[in-house]
Specification:
Blueprint: H1 2-13, E1 25-27, E2 30-34, E3 40-42, E4 54-58, E5 63-67, E6 71-81, E7 87-97, H2 104-108, H3 115-121, E8 125-126, H4 130-140, E9 144-149, H5 154-163, H6 167-172, E10 177-182, H7 187-194, E11 202-206, E12 212-216, H8 222-232, H9 240-252, H10 255-264, H11 268-285, H12 288-295, H13 304-322, H14 327-341, H15 347-357, H16 359-366, H17 369-377, H18 384-404, H19 408-426, H20 435-448, H21 451-464, H22 469-481, H23 485-496, H24 501-517, H25 521-532, H26 543-559
Parallel strand pairs: 1-7, 8-10, 9-10
Antiparallel strand pairs: 2-5, 3-6, 4-5, 6-7, 9-11, 11-12
Length: 561
């Protein structure tokens, strides 16, 4: 009898499901990530089955299923407790819905707003569909430069205000056919199939056959862009696809490739240069498999910063997927990174990462900050706006460093310096009120805790650009930080009247967060449902839309807790 009571109590205490919240209804072609409850993991030995779906990724802490077939299905996953006392199969019912075409008026209704401003900031750039502009490029037989950008991205605005209208840029691209892609527009999804991109702004050079030649991944500096453009013109007959085939054939040790290289007189130096060029592409595309393959036989000393950045991101991925603590490994890589980047652009950013991770490990590098500032102040070859931008970015991250060390006096000093550098930068803009410099200054003022000046700066942008949702959204976020959720919702309503495409999605995500702040989970669930109805997923597994759906599902889960 006692044993029966124990079994009954145990059954009562054990949760009915060992899998955390997941949506019972999902979109066709959606990737759903299942997670076990805390203190549990998915069995490595037992089979894991997604029903009519397929396993997209599998780790002890997450199993992702791709559901590409509409209809009711049942995933069968096996979960064990971390103490290794039991494992149990979990049967999870999922209804995969086909979905309907999104009404074009919802996501396209405001795309034509602000066209005049966009044309002013992107002179000489064409806009249009992939088929239309591909045909035009083929007819003109010119190299094709595609810029993918948005209105809200500060770096994009910096490029538009200071780089695109410069004589250096205009000279470098004088014989190129230039295309502008608004990253928030629905057309960006079509362009992403031709010119995949992972961040804004992205500059991608293609030949007239729309084959990729290279990507500009440096800072937005005129001299650097000009040097990059000159180098790329030598590769117009050697697109990345051919380069990749050639390099991987050498790695495989094929005799045919060896013979061709011998006949063509390809030297060891040329082979190394080709590998370096392919590595730059792989790093920019975040192609983990290609990066790992290239690193098997080449350390790429000329790209040490980029390789270290990749290794750090891999450690972070392993931490997420396997719940491992790799803190000491990250500290080691960040220390090496600081040695590599002291005379480059991002030193203070990496130091901020190290200080957040381990204050003791970062303090010897903090002592180098005055030397670093002195080095940057003496740099040559930059126009005034570029120099102020560089110093503003530097002092922004230095502010974060001192804040993480709880040094309020130095944090306040560098936050003030950051704001002042952006103010000087704004005076060199072609616009009456610089969007890029104002956005940077607002970020500095927020770090400094000067919310009154921050609000004035945001209001000035709204007044200067009243038909753009970007700055109304920024004001809504600011109001949320001030715990003024109702006012933030009112600001979002104004922004929504001007929004389109992906910035409309961004507004809905914030709206859902605000309803959670107000303890209104039903409204959050309604926002998620309404927004999901506008999302289209197809077999291409577009990462941007999948990421959007994942964030919406996260909101849905929190609203259901």
């Amino acid at each position: 009898m006692f044993i029966l009571l124990m079994i009954a109590n145990l059954a009562q205490a054990m949760p009915t499901s060992l899998v955390a919240f997941y949506p019972n209804e999902v979109l066709r072609n959606e990737i759903v990530t299942f997670k076990p409850l805390k203190g549990h993991h998915f069995s490595a030995e037992a089979p894991q089955n997604c029903g009519t779906g397929s396993v997209a990724e599998r780790t002890p802490r997450e199993i992702s299923c791709l559901f590409s077939q509409a209809g009711l299905t049942q995933a069968n996953l096996n979960v064990c407790d971390d103490s290794k006392t039991f494992c149990r199969p979990q049967q999870l019912s999922v209804n995969v819905v086909q979905g309907q075409d999104a009404p074009p008026t919802m996501l396209k209704r405001n795309e034509s707003l602000n066209k005049e401003m966009k044309h002013k900031l992107t002179p000489g750039f064409a806009e249009g569909s992939v088929s239309e502009l591909s045909s035009k490029a083929a007819g003109e037989k010119q190299p094709v430069l595609v810029m993918i950008s948005t209105d809200w991205c500060p770096s994009c605005n910096e490029a538009k205000e200071y780089l695109l209208t410069s004589q250096a840029f205009l000279h470098a691209t004088r014989d190129w056919f230039k295309i502008y892609v608004d990253g928030d527009s629905l057309a960006a999804r079509d362009w992403n199939q031709v010119v995949p991109f992972h961040y804004f702004p992205s500059f991608v050079l293609l030949n007239s056959r729309m084959e990729e030649i290279g990507r500009y991944t440096g800072e937005l500096r005129q001299s650097e862009f000009e040097a990059w453009a000159k180098e790329q013109e030598g590769y117009l007959d050697d697109p990345i696809a051919q380069l990749k085939t050639r390099v991987l054939e050498r790695r495989a040790g094929g005799w045919l490739r060896w013979g061709r290289d011998l006949i063509n007189g390809v030297s060891a130096k040329q082979r190394d240069a080709q590998e370096s060029r392919l590595m730059k592409y792989a790093l920019d595309m975040e192609d983990r498999d290609l990066i790992a393959k290239l690193l098997e036989k080449n350390l790429f000393p000329g790209q040490r910063e980029e390789v270290l950045k990749f290794k750090i991101s891999e450690l972070e991925r392993m931490e997420r997927e396997k719940a491992q603590d790799l803190k000491m490994d990250k500290i080691k890589l960040l220390k090496e990174m600081l040695g590599v980047t002291f005379t480059k652009e991002h030193w203070s950013q990496y130091l901020a990462d190290l200080c957040e991770l381990d204050a003791t490990a970062c303090k010897p590098f903090v002592d180098q900050i005055p030397e670093r500032i002195s080095f940057l102040s003496k740099q040559t070859g930059l126009i005034e706006a570029e120099k102020e931008s560089q110093m503003a970015d530097e002092t922004y991250f230095i502010t974060q460093i001192y804040q993480s060390l709880n040094d309020k006096e130095d944090a306040k000093k560098y936050a003030r310096d950051c704001s002042e550098h952006f103010e000087v930068m704004s005076k060199n803009s072609q616009l009456k009120i610089s969007r890029a410099a104002s956005q940077g200054m607002i970020a500095c003022l927020e770090l400094a805790g000067d919310f009154e000046r921050e609000e004035r700066a945001v209001d000035a942008l709204i007044e200067a650009y009243p038909t753009e949702p970007t700055f109304l959204l920024r004001k809504a976020r600011m109001l949320r930080k001030e715990k003024k959720s109702d006012e933030a919702l009112e600001m979002l309503t104004k922004a929504e009247a001007l929004a389109f495409g992906y910035n409309w999605y961004t507004l809905q995500l914030l709206r859902g967060e605000l309803y959670l702040d107000l303890k209104k989970p039903d409204q959050t669930r309604q926002v998620v449902e309404t927004t999901l109805a506008q999302v289209r997923l197809d077999s291409s597994q577009d990462k941007r839309n999948q990421s959007l759906v994942e964030r919406l599902r996260g909101l849905q889960a929190r609203a259901s807790e």
